[in-house]
Design goal:
Elements: E1 2-7, H1 19-27, E2 31-33, E3 49-54, H2 62-73, E4 78-79, H3 82-88, H4 93-99, E5 108-110, H5 118-125, E6 129-134, E7 144-147, H6 150-164, E8 169-173, H7 178-181, E9 183-189, E10 192-200, E11 215-219, H8 223-239, E12 247-254, E13 260-266, H9 279-291
Parallel strand pairs: 1-2, 1-3, 3-4
Antiparallel strand pairs: 5-8, 6-7, 6-8, 9-10, 9-12, 10-11, 12-13
Helix pairs in contact: 1-9, 2-3
């Protein structure tokens, strides 16, 4: 059996976190390939399955990436489903989940080319601090936190105006607890929590990615968080008529009261922190083979 773990041509040499998954597949007699998703010389139809893993350059070519997912899925079992990929690569999915009752971060959605007065947004929402991020993005690209004082608002308004010239954006309240408590990521395979991590930024920062010096450590989610994460996955599966999604990562932040809120749902190419939960490699390998 041959399974492809789709990647990108610019993958850093230091990226080895997926090794437990690779080893788990090989122990089951699988030949593992690592094709770049946009490699025109690789025939994806020769695979028995394709799992998106480290396609970290897609955000700049989202439409092309979605077309690739659709086309590839016509010839080979594809995870997660291309309809899920298309939906999850645009953060408007958060609107759908909020409408389904998932507790999330309040958001003002701003389309590319629109003109928005940030001071007015903060006043109408009753926020004293704000956060800007693009609707298609990853690794904290295009993000900015700001205060409601004049200087900070002026910088943020300039930043927003420049971004809106090229892409749609989101405005949210800035959740200060991220600086001390970080972001909690819960990994789920076949509807079951396999492990979880807490990602903590360097002092004074909000970016929880290790690209910016953040640290991560294993954690045990409390029962309410675990139930919330599993419920989110169930909602998505039901939305697309799927029994169970193969896998995904639910990222939670806490508000000022300590209540968990959905920050991101990673169903495309989630970093799975196998270094803190090697058993998840076996879980994914078994789940793929069971589907085949």
């Amino acid at each position: 059996m041959q399974i492809g773990l789709a990647t990108c041509s610019s993958l850093p040499e230091w990226e080895v976190d997926d090794q437990p998954l690779v080893e788990a597949l090989r122990r089951r007699g699988v030949r593992v390939h690592h094709p770049a998703w946009d490699d025109a010389t690789f025939d994806f139809s020769t695979l028995d399955a394709c799992l998106i893993r480290t396609t970290w350059d897609y955000e700049h070519r989202r439409d092309e990436f979605v077309r690739w997912a659709r086309n590839t899925a016509e010839h080979v079992p594809f995870f997660n489903h291309p309809q899920v990929i298309e939906w999850n690569t645009h953060k408007s999915y958060l609107k759908d989940l909020a409408e389904a009752g998932v507790p999330g971060i309040p958001t003002e959605w701003i389309e590319k080319g629109e003109a928005v007065d940030l001071a007015g947004v903060l006043t109408s929402r009753g926020w004293t601090r704000g956060f800007l991020k693009p609707v298609v993005g990853s690794t904290a690209r295009g993000t900015l936190r700001f205060h409601d004082d004049a200087d900070s608002l002026e910088r943020a308004q300039t930043f927003l105006d420049e971004r809106l010239a090229v892409e749609s954006m989101m405005v949210q309240p800035y959740l200060e607890r991220v600086e001390s408590g970080g972001e909690e990521s819960i990994m789920i395979v076949d509807g079951e929590v396999t492990h979880a991590v807490r990602k903590v930024p360097v002092p004074g920062d909000y970016r929880v990615q290790d690209d910016f010096g953040a640290s991560d450590e294993p954690m045990t989610p409390d029962p309410a968080e675990a139930r919330l994460a599993c419920r989110i996955m169930e909602i998505v599966a039901h939305r697309f008529g799927i029994d169970r999604l193969l896998y995904g990562r639910v990222d939670l932040l806490r508000d000022a009261t300590g209540a968990p809120l959905l920050n991101e749902l990673e169903l495309v190419e989630p970093s799975f922190f196998f270094r803190h939960g090697r058993q998840a490699g076996d879980a994914i390998a078994s789940a793929i083979l069971a589907r085949l």
